[in-house]
What we know:
alpha/beta; Rossmann fold; 7-stranded parallel beta sheet; 3-stranded antiparallel beta sheet; elongated
Amino acid sequence: xxxxxxxxxSRLWNVLRREVQWLRPGLGFKRWxxxxxxxxxxxxxxxxxxxxxxxxxxxxxWWLPALAYLSLRFxxxxxxxxxxxxxxxTLVLIGIxxxxxxxxxxxxxxxxxxxxxxxSFRRRDRGPRIVVLGGGHGLASLLRGLKEYTHNITxxxxxxxxxxxxxxxxxxxxxxxxxxxxxxxxxxxxxxxxLSQVFQYRFASGAGLEGHSLGNLFITALTxxxxxxxxxxxxxxxxxAVYGQVLPSxxxxxxxxxxLIDENGNRLHVxxxxxxxxxxxxxxxxxxxxxxxxxxxxxxxAVLNADLVIIxxxxxxxxxxxxxxxxxxxxxxxxxxxxxxxxxNVATERGETDQFSCLDHVKSVESHVxxxxxxxxxxxxxxxxxxxxxxxxxxxxxxLKAHTAVYCADLIDTTYPWRHDSKRxxxxxMNLFYERTGPLMNNNH
Length: 445
């Protein structure tokens, strides 16, 4: 019998402790609770005055003694205040609790308490403003991890891609390439279970559809409907319930150009991001056509208002540098008062960064943005796993430590060791950010 009573008491205590968490600071709940209690109190005062007026002025009838009995006039006034006040507060709390659960139930993941969902949302809503410049799978992987810490994320993506589905749509429909933007939208989606998978679905066959992803076609269709590429991207973000935003670095139809030196020492002039990647040779110079491409103004504003600017990861010459070749955007990065982190790639990329070290990556970016612009360079120091043919680990050299501040950690994805692990990388970034700025929000990851 005692064990059963202890079990009942333990359950009641756990329920009470869980519900008291609604009064924790930062949830934005107490202010509305206090407002509801004040309103209920005033309503109760008004109703009491009305009842007293009836009680005092009404003619003697049978129901007056009953009213006196229900008002507990046989008890002392302080006791009556405690009884009625306690019942009122309890009913108000139960009503608010029940209505909140009913309203929030469609938006709370199964098996996750409402208080945890609300706490997670509020914590991320107050998170730091982070701008990430990159591209490809590396950028999408980073965004997938960062969205667990903050909703205030802006991904700035190059529009110089001219291969695959994006390149085909660019040539046939005259739209900016949507591929990297599609990947970022899917990564930032609040629900990656089904809708994002449909958005990422790539047709394996079908006349005119083979090789195209549904998301690319969707963004292209929205561009036709809305009349602007940026509006199409914004609407796609709303469909996918994206927290944060994905912005093109420019709205100009640009082409990536490069000068390469082949193995015989001959200089080659190559046009197009795909051709640059597929042509063998060391890249000597990279530029955009047109050269004075204007940046997308919201992208500049995001960089200037950021708390943290992250460059990388991603293909150095076909994803990272094309963003920084947009003159105004590079100047905004240089002028921003935010902390600036550079995420070095885990492995080299054939045709782009063969035999590159971390220092080679940093110097290539700094040649376009400015010397010693980074507050910190983050490198991987775990080199286990099988890489592809002609792919090597990108390692940190001692010369880099003399050049800038460096932080090394195990950042690889064990399944795909040539990529970053999204959770490890984002946790490392946020820990280093808070170490330098102080905890802007409670970090429990």
